[in-house]
Amino acid sequence: xxxxxxxxxxxxxxxxxxxxDEREAIKQRxxxxxxxxxxxxxxxxxxxxxxxxxxxxxxxxLKLKREYPHxxxxxxxxxxxxxxxxxxxDKFVYDLILDQADKVVYISRYYTRDCMHKRxxxxxxxxxxxxxxxTNPHSGTAYTVDYARQRGLRIIxxxxxxx
Length: 163
Description:
Elements lengths: L8 E6 L5 H20 L4 E4 L5 H12 L7 E8 L8 H13 L2 E6 L6 H11 L3 E5 L6 H11 L3 E4 L6
Parallel strand pairs: 1-2, 1-5, 2-3, 3-4, 5-6
């Protein structure tokens, strides 16, 4: 978070795998939610830089910056070079997002056992709203959403069964 106002900051968390038949609907819902949040005064959007939902959210924010140039994308990354073992296309997309982000925060210089956990807590601790894609109640995403709920964040789950 840049300005110290949690009410102006939204974090994203979600699964790395989103079923192919749900992707377009999730992208559309994500865009609609982000636009609604912008209209409510949210300016900062923070994501953890992982594959799947994090990447989808970052790309949506970057696309909406064309229409809403005052919004900012913040990447909160668990460690430098997290993408080193990813497929070439995923690395390419990651690098594009990294180049266009307004701010990048690295939790750790190198991978550690708890860097992902710390990244998720950082995202929540600096936000007032959590937009998620949560379908598996036994996952890192579920832990992060539970933590966000405990911290009093407004939770918006874009998963189909949450409607």
